[in-house]
Amino acid sequence: MTDDLLESEVPVIPPGYEQMQWTRGFGRQIGPLYQKNNPDGTYLRAFLVGEHHTNGMMNCHGGMLMAFADTVFGHAISMRRKSHYWVTVRLLTDFISSARLGDWVEGTADIAGEEDDLFTVKGRIWCGERIIMTGTGVFKTLGPRPPRR
Amino acid sequence: MTDDLLESEVPVIPPGYEQMQWTRGFGRQIGPLYQKNNPDGTYLRAFLVGEHHTNGMMNCHGGMLMAFADTVFGHAISMRRKSHYWVTVRLLTDFISSARLGDWVEGTADIAGEEDDLFTVKGRIWCGERIIMTGTGVFKTLGPRPPRR
Questions:
Q1: Interval B86-95: pLDDT, tens
Q2: Is the complex ipTM higher than 0.90?
Q3: Cross-chain CB nearest to A70 (options B25, B63, B145)
Q4: Which regions of B24-83 does DSSP assign to beta strands (E)?
Q5: Is the pTM of this model over 0.95?
Q6: Which residues in B have their CB inside 8 Å of a CB on A?
């Protein structure tokens, strides 16, 4: 078939990852994002750097890495408080290395502290063996959200 | 005419703002963004919160505010070093209040410190009288970029 992609052009999504079904809003706009839930309760999120994620140097835009960090780090709250909305209070992001067009970027985070409705989360984002970003977020839970479908 | 928008539905872009002509990459993806250059060398950037910027609560997504902060704060470097690329080294963002769908969100920043190729920038983002975000960024200039058209 003439419209076959070359094998090297097909994005390879690692086993266990599922595409997140965000059909609206900013999540859809910066997607697709992928998620992998491990049996031990930990999780990974990831995305493949596309043209629509790049800056003028054809690296992943710093704003995209920060937006990704916000969803990755904040998801730790959703894992701990499944039925609550949360908001970001403060986020510190350290840019260690750049991600390039076509890179598979992964991230995860852990809750480092919990005090009433405030959570401190430490997270990291990497590409293969290369650390891209580390950071610390403070998040606040709000009232209950409608049940997830 | 039947396809007239109601007056209340037409986004009102304040005088002096021009839409930024980002035709590719992440800048286009999260746009449209607007910019206003003042005669005294200061500047403003802004955007109208659209559906594609929102989170599940129909407020502006925290990731969008951070991405906007990155472009607003970093632009202070472009004003000081017009012919150089720059990268974000560290960004701290404090979320003070939320921006809602339809809000006109503005931001600016000032260089607080300069040491060789490292710049410390303090910035703020607001909506009318309401502060949305404050933050501090560290940026690093790289080599010269091609002349801007």
A1: 899 999 999 9
A2: no
A3: B63
A4: 34-37, 43-48
A5: no
A6: 24-30, 51-57, 60-64, 66-71, 74, 85, 87-95, 98, 145
